[in-house]
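so my prof wants the structure for this chain in the tokens format not the other one, which i didnt know existed until like an hour ago. anyway here's the sequence
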Amino acid sequence: MPLHPNIDPELAEGLKHAFLPPVDFARMSPADLPGLRRQMGAAFAAMPSFAAPGLSVEDRMVPGPDGDPDIRVRLYRPEERHGPLPCLYWMHGGGMVLGLVEMDDARMARFVQDVGCAVVSVEYRLAPEHPHPAPVEDCYAGLVWAVKNAEELGVDPERVAVGGSSAGGGLAAGTVLMARDRGGPPVAFQLLSSPMLDDRGTTPSSREFTEAVAWNRDANVFGWTALLGDAIGTEGVSPYAAAARAADLSGLPPAYIEVGELEVFRDECADYAMRLVRAGVSTEFHMHPGAFHGFDAFVPEAGLSRRAAAGRAAALRRALVRV
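here's what i got, hopefully its the right format
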């Protein structure tokens, strides 16, 4: 596949040495997903247990939504810091159909180190076996647990940010809407990294990227269909599933939204950011020039990737850290 002429040169060079999973969503069916998930799980199981200097990592099983199975969360905390810490509650990516908490270990470790916060990362149920509202309800249940148990976890319940990447960014936006509408828990900030926000697929960028380094139009349709089934694109889709559907964005916490220039989600992220601003929500928006979806995961050492990581950490520090 030829690369887009606007791609950042350092990212283009880095792709020559990056591993890109050979997943063709245009030719996939839901029946292929269990095998892909097993491969992903086996790959992480074969790796040494994640460890980083000065970081404690612990898995817990916590109550899921009423009547549903418990969900796994992974807790990250700086070992040398005590007292109530700010907390990032995080959702991994994977297009609503793939992913597990282990895939974000390195990113969460950087947040702990750079921000001085604790992190709670949630492993939600995946579509299509568990369509909407299961994933977002899992995410909300994990948030409720984290805030309810803030004292035990050593975190400040008034300084909790909700964030996620890709599908996780969309679920983070839905979780924040849910917390507003259900009267809590309080959310101090939302960090949305290339969030998956709109199932309708009608923006120019959603139509443009039929070919992409990662997550093209076919993949996006596959993921949304897995989550929503026949409801995709109809008027019956909940804003908790697709946050771009929310008619009212007022009363939400301040936001940081970022997206790449060369990805399906570009326009829906820009639109959502401007709608937040118009609703009175303080919002910082970044469009990374020459960047494709997941660029910082595939080419983490590129200058653009480093700047993006630094921007996220700086935004969290401004929102959560008391001087």
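also thought this was worth mentioning. The first helix runs from residue 9 to 15.
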